[in-house]
Write a structure and sequence with these properties.
Blueprint lengths: L2 H5 L12 E2 L8 H10 L1 E7 H10 L3 H5 L3 H6 L3 H22 L7 E4 L5 E4 L6 E7 L2 E7 L4 E7 L6 H8 L2 H8 L3 H22 L12 E3 L5 E3 L7 E8 L3 E8 L32 E2 L12
Length: 296
């Protein structure tokens, strides 16, 4: 952390635990409940293949899908249908574990931009969903906004073509000075962090990424440049040794209990949900030795 940042009263970063692997509807869910109690939030990852058989054989599938049932039945692509069904079940079961209520009692709906929300019994729990390839990631929080995003770690993207869309001028300058492979890896990490952050805000792709600046402290932990009070916590983990999963969470006081929160205004038709996420064997993505002055 710079002296200037310390002078503005920026607090130490909150360490966000790695995503928990949940291979099926039966859990284990104890770790999720523990993280909710300790930090107010939790993130899980799995693959749609691991949940597919128990999901399709569940006699209560229609009830669990709720308002997503027509979309599931009418989806034109077979694989898309399965991912839609499984991702919603993962979200509902994770939310149910956090709230300690049956999954079939939760009502999942969507805001006009496509952001998933819980109504009624789960209205005080914030949720975020992403999936990429076979990976599904869900974040839940009873203590402030949460956003998750994931990308294959080996994805090749063009820095030159996307730098002005994704990076602030300062970020672009620092990335341009790096060797190509390191630049691509760090650019992808930056992208997932900005996706997770804008999802937590409820903006998704509607907010210009180039207007959001990030830096890293001496431990390699991501920091939001405009967050001088240190309200936001960020982390990127490598999952299954091939997916980057980023999380953004703003810590707030957790509500006293479920209920009592007005459900947000809903769109008639759900839009495109957030991208993608994690699985087994996680490690924090950092920068060896810390970024140092003027470096990442």
């Amino acid at each position: 952390m710079s002296d200037a940042g310390a002078a503005r009263g920026r607090t130490a970063a909150v360490a966000l635990p790695p995503p928990c692997h949940v291979p099926g509807p039966d859990g284990p869910w104890e770790e999720i409940q523990e993280q909710i109690e300790q930090t107010g939030r939790a993130v899980v990852h799995t693959t749609w293949g691991q949940w597919l058989t128990p999901a399709l054989l569940d006699p209560g599938l229609r009830t669990l899908l709720g308002r997503d049932w027509p979309r599931y039945r009418q989806h034109p692509a077979p694989v898309g249908r399965l991912i839609l069904a499984v991702s919603r079940l993962v979200l509902k079961h994770t939310a149910a574990a956090a709230l300690q209520v049956p999954a079939d009692r939760l009502d999942l709906a969507y805001l006009p931009g496509g952001r998933p929300v819980l109504r009624g019994l789960g209205a005080d729990l914030q949720v975020s969903l992403t999936h990429t390839d076979e990976l599904i990631v869900v974040g839940v929080s009873r203590a402030g906004p949460i956003g998750v995003d994931a990308e294959p770690a080996g994805r090749r993207i063009s820095f030159e073509a996307l730098r002005d869309l994704v990076c602030t001028p300062g970020e672009a300058e620092l990335l341009a000075a790096l060797p190509e492979k390191e630049r691509t890896d760090r650019f992808l990490r930056l992208w997932t962090l900005k996706e997770a952050y804008t999802k937590a805000l409820g903006h998704g792709m509607r907010r210009r990424f180039s207007a959001v600046g990030f830096g890293w402290d001496a431990t390699g932990t991501a920091r939001l440049s405009e967050d001088t009070a240190g309200e936001w916590a960020f982390a990127t983990h490598l999952v299954e040794e091939r997916f980057l999963v980023s999380e953004a969470h703003r810590q707030e006081a957790a509500p006293a209990g479920p209920g009592g929160t007005r459900a947000p205004l809903l769109a008639d038709e759900p839009g495109r949900l957030p991208s993608a996420e994690p699985s087994q064997g996680t490690g924090v993505i950092g920068f060896p030795g810390g970024p140092g002055p003027g470096k990442w």
